[in-house]
Amino acid sequence: MRFPSDPPGARRARLAFFVALCFLSGAVFGAPFAYIANIVGNSVTVIDVESNAVVATVAVGVSPAGVAVLPTGRRAYVANLDSRNISVIDTTTQQVVSTIAEGTSVQSLALNPMGTRLYCIRVPDKQLLVLDTGSNQFTASVPMEFDAHLVAVHPDGSRVFVTRNSGLRIIDAATNTIVTTIELDSTPFAIAPDPHRERVYVTQLQRNRVLAIDTVSYKVVGEVAVGVDPYGIGINPDGSRIYVTNSGSNSVSIIDAASFQVIATVPVGFQPIGAGVDPAGMRAFVPNSLSNTVSVIDTATNTVAAVIPTGIRPRAFGQFIGGPSGSGAVVAAPVPTLTRDGNWVLITLLLFASFMAIRPRI
């Protein structure tokens, strides 16, 4: 309301002060987050990728393994191996908002680019399940025949890739039918589609190498040796760098995607499993399973810039970094601190309110 004695602009000044108070009370604009599954602690550590701060520890099901979240997604999905279900985390509140009963163990998850379908690897009966994220109902299953490991989705959503004991299986996302199977000389494990090239990268644990596979011809077009037991792989948003976690040699191999050569090897914690790069391409996040930490690699210098404590036996595969950044979402902060952009917004609001309060009447 506006009081009779209010000078012009007083209502706007009060509104600006009110918004500023919301900031001071501990609300911040949402940043991208890294969701790290702690397989022994039955929890997910949520890390603000801008500040490297742990903003939440979310209790989920038993033995969480795979995580899937879109870069601007409002939901993070967590596969719980031993409780045989999927926890759904709201990325604006960092709370579990639903649990999807599955009935048997799921270990790997991947979302299509629209966030409308969640692909799940079901371990015991070697199936790829398709979940409609609008209804949280499973709508299809595709047989894998051999043990399946990890799943990823083509950047345009048209195909789904699954690593399995005999090679790489490609599924048509429109029909949920098998397009082809690429037989390889050694079992592939981790997988990462290139965001700009028609390529998918897979690691081979027994061979200690990474393969580049053309997703048009379905031929192997490159290979490069990395460290021991390359258990995880991630790629930066512009597709120029590939990060491979070597769980047996406690390091990360950084590959130049254009030349497909290792350009740096970065020591990290014990048994690194999984790698992901923030949306800005500035930091790579590597969970160290036996150190109970995440190493943060500065992608400009290829050095470890920070080490973040997590829960017990952290791991992460696929797209585990995302959240409401850029969507205007406001989330509760654990302490009354602001991001850099939040500080500028607060200062602007306070200056505007001061100006409206003291300017002379006309």
Write the layout of secondary structure elements.
Layout (H helix, E strand, L loop, with lengths): L9 H15 L2 E3 L3 E6 L4 E6 L4 E7 L4 E6 L5 E6 L4 E6 L4 E7 L4 E6 L5 E6 L4 E6 L4 E7 L4 E6 L5 E6 L2 E6 L4 E7 L4 E6 L5 E6 L4 E6 L5 E6 L4 E6 L5 E6 L4 E6 L4 E7 L8 E2 L5 E6 L4 E6 L4 E7 L4 E2 L5 E2 L7 E3 L7 H19 L4
Antiparallel strand pairs: 1-31, 2-3, 2-29, 2-30, 3-4, 5-6, 6-7, 7-8, 9-10, 10-11, 11-12, 13-14, 14-15, 15-16, 17-18, 18-19, 19-20, 21-22, 22-23, 23-24, 25-26, 26-27, 27-28
Task: Describe the overall structure.
This protein is mainly beta. The chain is 9% helix and 48% strand. The protein is built from 2 helices and 31 strands. It has helices at residues 10-24, 340-358; strands at 27-29, 33-38, 43-48, 53-59, 64-69, 75-80, 85-90, 95-101, 106-111, 117-122, 127-132, 137-143, 148-153, 159-164, 167-172, 177-183, 188-193, 199-204, 209-214, 220-225, 230-235, 241-246, 251-256, 261-267, 276-277, 283-288, 293-298, 303-309, 314-315, 321-322, 330-332. Strands 2, 3, 4, 29 and 30 form a 5-stranded antiparallel beta sheet that branches. Strands 5-6-7-8 form a 4-stranded antiparallel beta sheet, with no helix packed on it. The radius of gyration is 23 Å and the shape is globular. The model is unreliable at 1-6, 13-29 and 326-343 (pLDDT under 50).
